[in-house]
């Protein structure tokens, strides 16, 4: 525990001790002036509105996670996870967020809601800030805030704070068969269950599922799978998407083939030699950080050894934001757009993201 958090608990213990000593100074049945006080009956403790009648148990990264309470004071980390939380209409439960620097912009439809919430940190999770905010729930993921040696679900549990781990990130701690667009929907359903809002959230989730089903129907019978390279960042060594990153699921749904699908990770390092050999027909550019999307495209165009790559020769670039590339409500919309780009001969419907109306400002 940090010194600041330790002082916080030290003061709380001192206050409790003072109350106990005051009670010991008074003989039973006497008030502060020494007179006899009227007998009173101790009030029964108030019912805890957040306590579940039956604990909820959810599979989180292959392990059963128990939730005894409905959280009231939540913190999210990273822009995509924060968008998932607000997508469910849970903005009023949010007491802080972290991991959203200026280069990771949240959807404009959600800015008004997030403006009401304190930013805890632009970068890493901060346990001290979480405890000071009296958080009782944290939504993050491995490499989306949770890190060995830093803040982890186990560390939060020691402080009485529940958590949920993003499914895509579970590849860091367990083997997985595949990644799918449905993983994000499963996360949304689990968070809705944890916060006891399933009936209210079901309509939002059903809209995403309907778009997934519609895309699958429109891609039925497709046999052409254009080769796709996802370029996140890096000059000497490219950071890309492996077989367990969310863009893999979007590429699959859009009828493409990820050239680095054989790497069993979500956001691994690739190499330029394989980019040349595997010759992608399309390049997905993830637009965040520096350089921006155009800067990344210009870098690829200027790299002499890539001049013969089909995507660069034909100028086939598909730009998405960080929040669109990582698990969140925008994934289905991006998969539809990508399918329309890869297969212009098919009549692909591109549905808007079904954002909830902006919440009323907090009083």
Account of the protein in words:
- By secondary structure, the chain is an alpha/beta fold.
- The protein has two domains: 53-216, Nitrogenase molybdenum iron protein domain (Rossmann fold, 3-Layer(aba) Sandwich); 222-342, Nitrogenase molybdenum iron protein domain (Rossmann fold).
- 35% of the residues lie in helices and 16% in strands.
- The protein is built from 13 helices and twelve strands.
- It has helices spanning 3-25, 79-87, 111-114, 127-132, 153-158, 181-194, 198-218, 246-253, 272-278, 293-302, 310-313, 322-325, 331-342; strands at residues 51-60, 63-69, 74-77, 94-98, 119-121, 137-142, 145-146, 162-165, 227-231, 257-258, 282-287, 317-321.
- The strands form three sheets. Strands 3, 4, 5, 6, 7 and 8 form a six-stranded parallel sheet that branches.
- Helix 6 packs antiparallel against helix 7 (198-218) and helix 7 (198-218) packs parallel to helix 13 (331-342).
- It is globular, with a radius of gyration of 25 Å.
- Mean pLDDT is 89; it is low at 1-38.
Question: Secondary-structure map with pairings?
Answer:
Elements: H1 3-25, E1 51-60, E2 63-69, E3 74-77, H2 79-87, E4 94-98, H3 111-114, E5 119-121, H4 127-132, E6 137-142, E7 145-146, H5 153-158, E8 162-165, H6 181-194, H7 198-218, E9 227-231, H8 246-253, E10 257-258, H9 272-278, E11 282-287, H10 293-302, H11 310-313, E12 317-321, H12 322-325, H13 331-342
Parallel strand pairs: 3-4, 3-6, 4-5, 6-7, 6-8, 9-10, 9-11, 11-12
Antiparallel strand pairs: 1-2
Helix pairs in contact: 6-7, 7-13, 8-13
């Amino acid at each position: 525990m940090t010194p600041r958090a330790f002082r916080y608990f030290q003061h709380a213990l001192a206050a409790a001790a003072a109350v106990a000593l005051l009670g010991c100074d008074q003989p039973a049945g006497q008030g502060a002036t020494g007179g006899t006080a009227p007998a009173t009956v101790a009030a029964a403790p108030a019912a805890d509105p957040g306590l579940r009648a039956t604990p909820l148990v959810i599979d989180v990264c292959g392990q059963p996670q128990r939730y005894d309470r409905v959280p009231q004071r939540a913190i999210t980390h990273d822009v995509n996870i924060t968008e998932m939380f607000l997508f469910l209409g849970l903005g009023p439960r949010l007491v802080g967020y972290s991991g959203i620097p200026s280069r990771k912009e949240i959807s404009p439809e959600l800015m008004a809601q997030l403006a009401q919430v304190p930013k805890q940190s632009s970068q890493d999770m901060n346990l001290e800030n979480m405890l000071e905010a009296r958080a009782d729930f944290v939504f993050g993921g491995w490499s989306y805030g949770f890190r060995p040696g830093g803040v982890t679900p186990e560390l939060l549990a020691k402080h009485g704070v529940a958590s949920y781990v993003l499914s895509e990130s579970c590849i860091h701690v367990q083997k997985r068969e595949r990644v799918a667009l449905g993983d994000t929907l499963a996360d949304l359903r689990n968070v809705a269950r944890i916060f006891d809002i399933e009936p209210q959230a079901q309509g939002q989730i059903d809209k995403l599922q309907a778009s997934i089903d519609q895309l699958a129907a429109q891609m039925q019978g497709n046999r052409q799978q254009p080769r796709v390279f996802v370029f996140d960042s890096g000059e000497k060594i490219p950071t890309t998407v492996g077989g367990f990153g969310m863009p893999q699921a979007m590429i699959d749904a859009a009828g493409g083939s990820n050239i680095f699908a054989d790497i069993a990770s979500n956001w691994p390092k690739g190499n330029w030699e394989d980019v040349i050999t595997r010759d992608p027909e399309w390049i997905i550019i993830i637009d965040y950080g520096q350089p921006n999307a155009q800067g990344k495209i210009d870098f690829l165009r200027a790299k002499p050894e890539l001049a013969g790559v089909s995507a660069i020769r034909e100028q086939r670039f598909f730009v998405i934001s960080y929040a669109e590339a990582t698990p969140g409500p925008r994934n289905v919309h991006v998969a539809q757009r990508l399918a329309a780009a890869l297969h212009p001969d098919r009549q692909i419907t591109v549905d808007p993201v079904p954002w909830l109306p902006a919440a009323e400002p907090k009083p």
